[in-house]
């Protein structure tokens, strides 16, 4: 087991908000200035796509300038748009591309080419889009011939911010109001940012509606830290005995903060300090101290608010007293990897009692973990989750493909090192 983790870190900028800042900045009039932009590979893919459509983006490190050209200012790209490993890029951009006066093809790496795109093809087609999966398998590569779009009401079968956002972004160009309803409310960064850029958005219960604007207007954006990245240090701070960590400037939007509620329910010592609003998004510093956890049940409406954190929550549950049940989380199977199968397999290999179910996991806590060979499947959340499991295990696991952390948290291992000294 590792020494206690002590000190403070500022986790990198929020990935979801960073993507959206490039997209809306590109479609706005004027120069959008983004501070604390996440320099992760996924967000760089989004920058690459908009540069390929003629938008000058100056990436100066933590500050990015996007010289927007208005809602109709994108140009036909000369090549296939490469979305890399980023589901957010493919799905959100498809909403925008569906309404352009040109045709495009977009694709990404081998993981992206397996992820379901029928979920955006259906609502965008309902709006009049001409969008197909080139191989006819419901996945990327996609071909989109821009069309005139119609306002619609889409009742989404999944709680997915990527589906909701694709439809709302297409709704920027529709001939009337576009509304999306989802079974549970997913992250609302698109709605908040569209509103800030001057679009008329209303949200009521589980529905979000957009009235097409004349223009969007450039903004100054300060991106809060990503709670999905803070999650690994929250868990490590709770689990490694004697630890005390201050995680600075973390986004705590209620559509993203499920992990805080779950860990607090499990008995964790977490305190929110200096609550504030950061470019329309709630943020705070988070103080976490180590302590014992007990089991919990995670299901229903809280799932979309912690969907990317379930792998690290599963790790924490291995050290909680009692049986933790995660259900209603079948979405985890269609992320960068099948995160239910990969977590259950890896944690079991380390000696934990984890049962994979159709839509989640059953984790009986309390068994000691030992080292094992873990294949990250090039999934950043898997690599970081097993790194934290390794802090608590007897012998460091051999995690294959750890460099994939650069997707969402390039300095993850440096930050861990800093807190371990
Ligand atoms: O909209 C977003 O930025 C995201 C939404 C979620 O995906 P789904 O919309 O597929 O649930 C999440 O898993 C992903 O990491 C980022
Ligand atoms: C699922 C994720 O991202 P995306 O869907 O954008 O690939 C993630 O970051 O965990």
TrEMBL record:
Tell me the GO BP annotations in alphabetical order: amino acid biosynthetic process; aromatic amino acid family biosynthetic process; chorismate biosynthetic process
Q: Name one GO molecular function term.
A: 3-phosphoshikimate 1-carboxyvinyltransferase activity
Q: Name one Pfam family in it.
A: EPSP_synthase
Q: What is its EC number?
A: 2.5.1.19
Instruction: Extract one GO cellular component term from the record.
Output: cytoplasm
Query: Which residues are the active-site ones?
Result: 308 (proton acceptor)
Q: Which domain of life is it from?
A: Bacteria
Residues in Enolpyruvate transferase domain copies: 3-416
The family annotation for this protein states: Belongs to the EPSP synthase family.
Tell me, in a sentence or two, what this protein's role is.
Catalyzes the transfer of the enolpyruvyl moiety of phosphoenolpyruvate (PEP) to the 5-hydroxyl of shikimate-3-phosphate (S3P) to produce enolpyruvyl shikimate-3-phosphate and inorganic phosphate.
Protein name (database record) = 3-phosphoshikimate 1-carboxyvinyltransferase
């Amino acid at each position: 087991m590792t020494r206690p983790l002590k000190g403070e870190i500022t986790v990198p900028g929020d990935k979801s908000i960073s993507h959206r800042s490039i997209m809306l900045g590109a479609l706005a009039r004027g120069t959008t200035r983004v501070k604390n932009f996440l320099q992760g590979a996924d967000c760089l893919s989004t920058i690459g796509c908009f540069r390929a459509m003629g938008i000058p983006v100056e990436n100066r490190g933590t500050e990015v300038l996007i010289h927007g050209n208005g809602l109709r200012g994108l140009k036909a790209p000369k090549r296939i748009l490469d979305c890399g490993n980023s589901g957010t890029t493919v799905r959100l951009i498809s909403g925008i591309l569906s309404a352009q006066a040109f045709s495009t093809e977009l694709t990404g790496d081998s993981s992206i080419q397996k992820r379901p795109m029928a979920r955006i093809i259906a609502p965008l087609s309902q709006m009049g889009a001409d969008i197909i999966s080139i191989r006819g398998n419901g996945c990327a590569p996609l071909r989109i011939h821009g069309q005139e779009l119609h306002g619609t009401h889409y009742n989404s079968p999944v709680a997915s911010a990527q589906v909701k956002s694709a439809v709302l972004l297409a709704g920027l160009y529709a001939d009337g109001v576009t509304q999306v309803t989802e079974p549970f409310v997913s992250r609302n960064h698109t709605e908040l940012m569209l509103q800030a850029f001057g679009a008329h958005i209303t949200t009521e219960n589980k529905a979000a509606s957009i009235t097409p604007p004349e223009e969007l207007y450039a903004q100054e954006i300060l991106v809060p830290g990503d709670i999905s990245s803070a999650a690994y240090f929250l868990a490590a701070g709770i689990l490694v005995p004697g630890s005390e960590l201050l995680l600075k400037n973390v986004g705590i939007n209620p559509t993203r903060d499920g992990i805080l509620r779950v860990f607090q329910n499990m008995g964790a010592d977490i305190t929110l300090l200096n609550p504030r609003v950061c470019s329309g998004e709630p943020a705070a510093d988070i103080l976490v101290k180590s302590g014992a956890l007990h089991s919990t049940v995670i299901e229903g409406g809280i799932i979309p608010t912690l969907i990317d954190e379930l792998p690290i929550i599963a790790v924490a549950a291995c050290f909680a007293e009692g049986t933790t049940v995660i259900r209603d989380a079948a979405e985890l199977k269609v992320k960068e990897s099948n995160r239910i199968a990969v977590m259950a397999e890896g944690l079991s290999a380390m000696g934990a009692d984890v049962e994979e179910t159709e839509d989640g996991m059953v984790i009986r806590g309390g068994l000691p973990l030992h080292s094992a060979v873990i294949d990250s499947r090039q999934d950043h959340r898997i690599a970081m989750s097993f790194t934290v499991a390794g802090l608590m295990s007897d012998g460091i696991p051999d995690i294959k493909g750890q460099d994939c952390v650069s997707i969402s948290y390039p300095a993850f291992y440096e930050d861990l090192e800093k807190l371990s000294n």
